Amino acid sequence: MPPKGRSRRNRSEDDEIEIRTNLSTFKPSPTKDIVKPTIFYGNLDEDIDSWLKNFDRIATANEWNRERKLNTLPAFLRDRAAEFYESLEDDKKEEIYGVWILLCTCM
Which superkingdom, per the lineage (predicted)? Predict the structure, then answer.
Protein backbone atom coordinates (compact mmCIF):
# COMPACT_ATOMS: atom_id res chain seq x y z
CA MET A 1 0.00 0.00 0.00
CA PRO A 2 1.37 3.47 -0.88
CA PRO A 3 2.33 5.85 1.92
CA LYS A 4 -0.40 8.14 3.20
CA GLY A 5 -1.20 11.00 0.83
CA ARG A 6 0.24 9.30 -2.28
CA SER A 7 -1.95 7.83 -4.96
CA ARG A 8 -1.34 4.47 -6.43
CA ARG A 9 0.20 4.72 -9.91
CA ASN A 10 1.45 2.06 -12.19
CA ARG A 11 4.95 1.98 -13.65
CA SER A 12 3.91 3.43 -17.02
CA GLU A 13 2.38 6.48 -15.32
CA ASP A 14 5.63 7.04 -13.41
CA ASP A 15 7.58 6.69 -16.66
CA GLU A 16 5.29 9.16 -18.41
CA ILE A 17 5.72 11.72 -15.61
CA GLU A 18 9.50 11.28 -15.77
CA ILE A 19 9.50 11.73 -19.55
CA ARG A 20 7.37 14.89 -19.30
CA THR A 21 9.66 16.29 -16.63
CA ASN A 22 12.75 15.56 -18.72
CA LEU A 23 11.21 17.11 -21.83
CA SER A 24 10.15 20.26 -20.00
CA THR A 25 13.66 20.82 -18.66
CA PHE A 26 15.51 19.72 -21.80
CA LYS A 27 17.81 22.34 -23.28
CA PRO A 28 19.56 21.34 -26.47
CA SER A 29 23.29 21.82 -26.49
CA PRO A 30 24.56 24.58 -28.74
CA THR A 31 25.29 23.41 -32.22
CA LYS A 32 28.64 23.79 -33.83
CA ASP A 33 28.67 26.00 -36.86
CA ILE A 34 29.52 24.28 -40.11
CA VAL A 35 31.31 27.31 -41.53
CA LYS A 36 32.16 30.80 -40.30
CA PRO A 37 31.91 34.05 -42.25
CA THR A 38 35.05 35.91 -43.22
CA ILE A 39 35.81 39.29 -41.70
CA PHE A 40 34.50 42.33 -43.56
CA TYR A 41 36.53 45.52 -43.13
CA GLY A 42 34.67 47.93 -45.40
CA ASN A 43 37.69 48.55 -47.62
CA LEU A 44 37.16 49.88 -51.13
CA ASP A 45 38.48 46.65 -52.66
CA GLU A 46 35.86 44.55 -50.82
CA ASP A 47 32.45 43.79 -52.29
CA ILE A 48 29.77 44.18 -49.64
CA ASP A 49 27.08 42.54 -51.82
CA SER A 50 29.15 39.39 -52.25
CA TRP A 51 30.09 39.34 -48.58
CA LEU A 52 26.46 39.67 -47.45
CA LYS A 53 25.32 36.94 -49.86
CA ASN A 54 28.06 34.71 -48.51
CA PHE A 55 27.07 35.59 -44.93
CA ASP A 56 23.47 34.65 -45.76
CA ARG A 57 24.53 31.30 -47.29
CA ILE A 58 26.62 30.56 -44.21
CA ALA A 59 23.72 31.51 -41.94
CA THR A 60 21.45 29.13 -43.85
CA ALA A 61 23.99 26.31 -43.67
CA ASN A 62 24.38 26.87 -39.93
CA GLU A 63 20.59 27.12 -39.48
CA TRP A 64 20.82 30.55 -37.88
CA ASN A 65 17.52 32.26 -37.18
CA ARG A 66 16.94 36.01 -37.56
CA GLU A 67 18.13 36.78 -34.04
CA ARG A 68 21.31 34.74 -34.45
CA LYS A 69 22.08 36.57 -37.71
CA LEU A 70 21.61 39.94 -36.00
CA ASN A 71 23.85 38.92 -33.11
CA THR A 72 26.53 37.35 -35.32
CA LEU A 73 26.86 39.97 -38.05
CA PRO A 74 28.70 42.63 -35.99
CA ALA A 75 31.24 40.06 -34.77
CA PHE A 76 32.55 39.78 -38.34
CA LEU A 77 32.82 43.52 -39.03
CA ARG A 78 36.07 45.38 -38.48
CA ASP A 79 37.55 48.84 -39.04
CA ARG A 80 35.36 51.03 -41.26
CA ALA A 81 32.50 48.50 -41.41
CA ALA A 82 32.44 48.08 -37.62
CA GLU A 83 32.55 51.84 -37.09
CA PHE A 84 29.63 52.28 -39.47
CA TYR A 85 27.63 49.54 -37.73
CA GLU A 86 28.30 51.03 -34.29
CA SER A 87 27.14 54.44 -35.52
CA LEU A 88 23.68 53.07 -36.32
CA GLU A 89 20.87 53.76 -33.89
CA ASP A 90 19.74 50.66 -31.98
CA ASP A 91 16.37 50.47 -33.76
CA LYS A 92 18.22 50.32 -37.12
CA LYS A 93 20.16 47.26 -35.89
CA GLU A 94 16.99 45.26 -35.18
CA GLU A 95 16.24 44.21 -38.75
CA ILE A 96 18.94 42.20 -40.49
CA TYR A 97 17.94 43.17 -44.03
CA GLY A 98 17.74 46.83 -43.07
CA VAL A 99 21.30 46.62 -41.76
CA TRP A 100 22.35 44.94 -45.01
CA ILE A 101 20.79 47.69 -47.13
CA LEU A 102 22.50 50.37 -45.04
CA LEU A 103 25.83 48.56 -45.34
CA CYS A 104 25.39 48.22 -49.09
CA THR A 105 24.64 51.89 -49.61
CA CYS A 106 27.48 53.12 -47.41
CA MET A 107 30.33 50.71 -48.10
Answer: Eukaryota
User: Distance of alpha carbon 75 from its chain centroid, rounded?
Assistant: 12
Q: Which amino acid is at 66?
A: R
Q: Decide if 53 is inside a domain.
A: yes
Residue 20 lies in a domain: no
Q: Is 40 within the bounds of a domain?
A: no
Decide if 98 contacts 73 (C-beta within 8 A): no
CA distance 86 to 68: 18
Find the domain containing 64 and state its range.
48-106
Total tally of structural domains belonging to the chain = 1
Q: What is the pLDDT of residues 68-107, one digit of tens each?
A: 998 999 999 999 999 999 998 888 888 777 887 778 777 6
Q: Is 74 exposed, middle or buried (0-12, 13-18, 19+ CB in 10 A)?
A: middle
pTM of the model: 0.64
Dihedral sign (CA 78, 83, 86, 89): negative
